[in-house]
Amino acid sequence: MSSSDIFIGETIGTAVLILLGGGVCAAVTLKRSKAQDAGWLAITFGWGFAVLTGAYIAARSGAHLNPAVTLGLAIDGRVDWSDVPLYIGSQMLGAIIGATLVWVTYYGQFRAHLTDPEIVGTPNPSEGMVDQTATPQAGPVLGIFSTGPEVRNVVQNLATEIIATAVLVLAILTQGQTKGLGVSGTGVLMTAFVVVGIGLSLGGPTGYAINPARDLGPRIVHALLPLPNKGGSDWGYAWIPVAGPLVGAALAAGLHKLAF
Amino acid sequence: MSSSDIFIGETIGTAVLILLGGGVCAAVTLKRSKAQDAGWLAITFGWGFAVLTGAYIAARSGAHLNPAVTLGLAIDGRVDWSDVPLYIGSQMLGAIIGATLVWVTYYGQFRAHLTDPEIVGTPNPSEGMVDQTATPQAGPVLGIFSTGPEVRNVVQNLATEIIATAVLVLAILTQGQTKGLGVSGTGVLMTAFVVVGIGLSLGGPTGYAINPARDLGPRIVHALLPLPNKGGSDWGYAWIPVAGPLVGAALAAGLHKLAF
Amino acid sequence: MSSSDIFIGETIGTAVLILLGGGVCAAVTLKRSKAQDAGWLAITFGWGFAVLTGAYIAARSGAHLNPAVTLGLAIDGRVDWSDVPLYIGSQMLGAIIGATLVWVTYYGQFRAHLTDPEIVGTPNPSEGMVDQTATPQAGPVLGIFSTGPEVRNVVQNLATEIIATAVLVLAILTQGQTKGLGVSGTGVLMTAFVVVGIGLSLGGPTGYAINPARDLGPRIVHALLPLPNKGGSDWGYAWIPVAGPLVGAALAAGLHKLAF
Amino acid sequence: MSSSDIFIGETIGTAVLILLGGGVCAAVTLKRSKAQDAGWLAITFGWGFAVLTGAYIAARSGAHLNPAVTLGLAIDGRVDWSDVPLYIGSQMLGAIIGATLVWVTYYGQFRAHLTDPEIVGTPNPSEGMVDQTATPQAGPVLGIFSTGPEVRNVVQNLATEIIATAVLVLAILTQGQTKGLGVSGTGVLMTAFVVVGIGLSLGGPTGYAINPARDLGPRIVHALLPLPNKGGSDWGYAWIPVAGPLVGAALAAGLHKLAF
């Protein structure tokens, strides 16, 4: 696989993944979106089909779209270690592009949402701020960009991300194809439904980052975008959806080497 | 591919697409439908399986069912430019037939809905009209036929349609088959889920036309049908779901040529 | 295909189809079911996967499971006319078995539901009967067995069943396989999603029988079962979900012969 | 198939099945989960994709993941009887590991839920215990681990589990592959959707164990875990989701031998 294949496939594929994945969070969250309050099933299927669409488009690079997947495949010997930096860099770039496109697509909805006094509170603190977030560090639209815990507990939050990512990477490693993710139609479909399943089953506590680029890239975009009343980017949590998935991928690759 | 293949496949296939796609909007919107208020997930899966069914039936013509897809394939060199007018004409004809069949299928529901004073208001304006639409130009059932924006903003609305269609066309162009859409079972299934994904993720602001025929054909039918109290057809918006998808398809085809 | 293949495949396959299809209606309708009020999306996916499961099991007979499908395939020349009576007889037998198994599976739920005064009214008519059905002819659980219209209008109801069945049969006939329904994994999956799509999009007015055996067999079981307070079986409507699908299948087969 | 293949595939595969299956029940049930109240459709798709993911990973052992499936395949002659104990033992071990991982993943949510006075009642019985369960024997989170009936009736509960498992095993036996479950992509996908269908259609009365290991393993974990206010493990019901599925599998295998 050439460097250009990796760069183009991973950048465009991850951009599409984050555009659609962040998009469904915007669609379900924001005021004046036709999909507002469509619920958790919409979010999980939305992210699953985001994986499907991104992986479909990124066939030429093996469609990792996720540093944890790249790490797992490298440990398993299916990706050269020398290609890993290019994979991860392209994924980060793609994630930043994708999150920016979410903002473009939902521009008017972001504006309507973030200027609604019921959501962001009034500028006069004596009337009390409306708090709609689980944690004071997180702004009212951060969940469209990055994940966050419902119960803030470093050990549990890390454990949840490790376990969920280990399931993902184990499913990908046992796909039984020799190189890459096996981006045949059926392979992509299976992986997409695995991701829907992980979301439905293991997404409740932290919002299932299971992908460092998916969380860190959009968090950077949240920090940089000129959104009114956007609140904090919760940088104190940011290391968990990076470290957890990488540890989970390493564990899955180790288990796969040992057992399979 | 013969002209008769194109005409028959695209006309019947697009008619089925719009019958099922418009049908799910009618099912979820209208009074005295068993599916009333079934929600956004029902609408997006309904449109996805409308694509699946229409594409399945239209295999012989390559199952474009969408002028934007035809344009993208023509730019990419997979469809002869001389066939493009026949493709688009057949798609428009099919869309008009499909939207008319939605009206036949939901005849009693349209009547019940449009004669309900709570929905269409009373004829005496001194009691106040009930306004249930985002924009005064759009009638209470226009959403069953055509798309419309939640926040009316030409730049954002165009951008949303451009981005969403670019994702669709990029997914189709990277499907890696030499001619047409690759209407194998798996190919159709993948494209259907891509469309569900686009709806879930990018449909919130404008209702994701992503297909000029899907929007313009039914809008013409809405304008012509003898529905009581149907309200306006919002012709002021009509150019956006035509222009946006065509620009998006061209951008995707350009990106595909450049990068892939 | 031997007579024994047809009899076994169609009887068992249709029994499974109706057990699962009637089952999801019971699950969503009845008191003390974990799935009560799970909504229209649950019903349509439930019926789709009922088709998937029944068709999967009935591969040996071509998995028609539906007299309208058998008629369409016979007109198209893919099934011998001399086999048609055995197909339809087996489908009717299977439907009766399946509907009976729904009653066994949901025995306690039927009892709880039909002895609840809020649902079936009090025996003292002076306090007024609770009317929860669209039509006085239909009992409170008839919808678990058979279909019924939301707006009772012979012409529209027939038209809806004709159109919906024509879409189904056209999709099956264009599947491009030479004999039977093509009960490969992918073929079955596609047909199942076509049925989900028809349900979401065209099921609103009449509940999409699109299969004479699916409607008539369970209606007979409803008439015979010793259920308390079950109400009428609405025989006045019973001919529409038989005639409509057969006409729709014939139209689809004719269109297919003409156009494809 | 070697003993090591069976042990590794079934243990890891069943652990993933129960982690994801129990996980979706935790996600939908527990306080401070992002998926709380996501509904029955989320539960049934969650379990279906749990099967998909577990079966995918357990390809090397034939992906039974269920003593009832192993029994059905053994009766049908596709699995050696001498391998049956290892299959079932590995499945039980995997189920216990999986249920424990659910607890780890949702640690903070379990704690929040089980210390909420509105859910578990106050320690002062004079104020009255809040009863949120169908049966006094079952604690407030038992449903995350094991199944239980909405209407407690031994005959009906057994019948429901027998019928639902017979459908599952019949679908697997007719899959037409010579050894194991045919863990090709499409085969796994089909089986997953069959399980979603069984859940939607036949899950209402008892919660569809259809797998002795899926019910008994997590029930043991529920009994052993140091959860506050967890209530009883309902051992009086525990034999039904073991016996019912085994009888259903035997009936399906018998019917398959007789008829197919």
Layout: helices, strands, pairs:
The structure is a homotetramer of 260-residue chains.
Chain A: H1 3-29, H2 40-57, H3 67-75, H4 84-105, H5 107-114, H6 117-120, H7 142-145, H8 154-173, H9 185-202, H10 212-224, H11 240-259
Helix pairs in contact in A: 1-2, 1-4, 2-9, 3-4, 3-8, 3-11, 4-10, 8-9, 8-11, 10-11
Structure description:
- 4 copies of one chain form a homotetramer.
- With 260 residues, chain A is mainly alpha-helical.
- The first copy, chain A, has a single domain, classed as Glycerol uptake facilitator protein (Up-down Bundle).
- Chain A contains 11 helices and no strands.
- In chain A, helix 8 packs antiparallel against helix 9 and helix 10 packs antiparallel against helix 11.
- The longest helix of chain A has 27 residues.
- Chains A and B meet through helix 1, helix 2, helix 4, helix 5 and helix 9 of A and helix 2, helix 8 and helix 9 of B.
Please tag this protein with its features.
homotetramer, 260 residues, mainly alpha, Glycerol uptake facilitator protein, 11 helices
Uncertain parts of chain A = 127-133, 177-182
- Strand proportion of chain A: under 5%
- CATH topology heading of chain A: Glycerol uptake facilitator protein
Taken together, the total number of domains of chain A comes to 1
* Count of discrete alpha- or pi-helical segments spanning 4 or more residues of chain A: 11
